[in-house]
Amino acid sequence: MSELNESNNLIKIKITHLIKFASNFKGIEVHVYVNGKFVKMNYHDDQFVDILRRLQQKDLEEVYINQLDCKRVLDEVQKSLSSKSFYDPKTTDEKRVETVDHSFEIIKTFVKQLGIDKQSVEILTSINQKTITLLNESPSIFAFIKRFKKNCSEEFMQCVLTSYLSSRVIDKFPWASIQVKEKASLASLLCDITLSKEDFEHLKNYELDEVPLDQKILNHPTEVSALLLEKRDIIPSETITIIEQHHERPDGSGFPFKIESNRFNQLSCIFIVCQKFISHLFDAEFDYEQRATILLKIQKKYHSKTFEKAMSALVTVVA
Ligand SMILES: [Fe+2]
Predict the structure, then answer these.
(1) For site-directed labelling of 68, which of 12, 112, 128, 162 has its Cα 20 to 30 A away?
(2) Ligand 1 centroid from CA 25, angstroms
């Protein structure tokens, strides 16, 4: 091992994610942070994956790679999502769900540290398309959740189900198009990209019991929107508006801006009621019979003329 004195250009990544796409990573420098210093791993004699597994055995979860190598990781993720690789007949649907979940986690990791670029958006679009295809092959979203909940994180499952449900609800409007659905899908994958697993738990408790949120969570819609505003050429403005508004409420009790009812974008209204439906569905442990109760809860919180059309389209889709 050799010592590295500076963290310049080093990007933190989970070891599990590197292992998942490790087949072509030979040559990538791996650094660990020990005793206040970055140390470069020497793997001339050992296999890349063997070293990573040994680090895992020492209870290490994350390592650091050079910023320049992130492109290689993204290329590998993109390759694993290519139709040829993804739809290989030897691959089970469970493995496919794991692949999209890991891909999503890697994109989240990189976007948080490096911002978003064209390739990340392409991968997010591919993740969304692949998952929607798997969802369309399931008898219902309830069946999908029950079958695949062990193969991916709850956060990812909620993102893709919000994307799927939003698309179905958008289809109820005369202005529906693939492009509009893609804008909502991108918002569902990006809106909480800066949040951790623990932040998700806090948010869940906030939605259920109105427990107070810390400033980091209250700021996440503006934090994500600031990350994306720099890339207006690749992120549609409607996607950014949804992200900014996704925790607002028509009575002005939401966050971060506490906007009033008449300032909601119609696409945001659709996205918000769909996201809340999926969130309540998880809370109800995917019990299909509780959908009427869930709809009533959402109706109560989003009772407003601005949300009427979105609400009625959601009722039609899930009833
Ligand atoms: Fe959020």
Answers:
(1) 128
(2) 33
